[in-house]
Design brief:
CATH architecture of the largest domain: 2-Layer Sandwich
Strand order of the largest sheet: 1-2-5
Distance between the termini: 63 Å
Low-confidence stretches: none
Largest sheet: 3 strands, antiparallel
CATH topology of the largest domain: Tetrahydropterin Synthase, Chain A
Helix content: 40-55%
Number of helices: 8
Order of helices and strands: HHHEEHHHHEEHE
Structural class: alpha+beta
Length: about 200
């Protein structure tokens, strides 16, 4: 099959992959656009996984103010080089992340950051609800597991559906950005404040 320059261009825009990689993906999949996209995404995510061990000490602190100064966010996003930190793609990623945090109010970065006491309290609540609803005791563990997963999606940044594209989680967005930029990127920490909220 003849692979046109337009096909390569369209695939490149959809995936952010290089011209030669796009051409090769289309050739290997007989011009099938969807299969080529899937192939390039898998390849990109595999490359991103290899980069995840590399040191990242450059980057930026992104500050974001929302709703007329009623919500404020600061997020530290690190990369490997100052060059990448100054690229538009990295800057947009950091900004979108801050916007997401402002909109979705995550409390933790990932599931491992949830304190054991909070987790136990959530399990106890889920168990009590299952009992109240008259669910059979033999399925309580499954119910608790499902409710914990929902809790993680609501409170852990990496598990949340991304505010601008709910088909991907923030963790998947991070992997795609690493694959596209070609450097390890780390979301190190964040804080979110809302005017008048109670102090812990």
């Amino acid at each position: 099959m003849e692979i046109s320059a337009q096909m390569v261009k369209d695939l490149r825009e959809a995936t952010g992959a290089g011209v030669l990689d796009c051409r090769k993906a289309l050739l290997e999949h007989g011009g099938d656009f969807e299969k080529a996209v899937a192939y390039l995404r898998e390849k990109g995510l595999a490359a991103a996984a290899k980069k995840s061990g590399r040191e990242a000490k450059e980057g930026k602190l992104e500050l974001y103010s929302h709703a007329g100064g009623r919500v404020g966010v600061i997020v530290e996003v690190n990369c490997e080089t100052d060059f990448v930190a100054r690229t538009e793609q990295f800057q947009v990623f950091a900004h979108d992340l801050a916007l997401h945090i402002a909109a979705n109010s995550p409390r933790y970065l990932d599931t491992a950051d949830v304190p054991a006491a909070v987790l136990e309290a959530e399990k106890a609540i889920a168990r009590a609800r299952a009992k109240e609803e008259g669910k059979p005791e033999k399925i309580w563990d499954k119910i608790i597991e499902g409710r914990l997963e929902k809790f993680y999606q609501e409170t852990c940044l990496f598990k949340q559906p991304f505010v601008k594209d709910e088909t991907v989680t923030v963790a998947e967005l991070l992997k795609r950005t690493i694959a596209a930029i070609g450097e390890n990127i780390i979301i190190r920490r964040f804080a979110r404040w809302e005017l008048g909220e109670a102090l812990d």
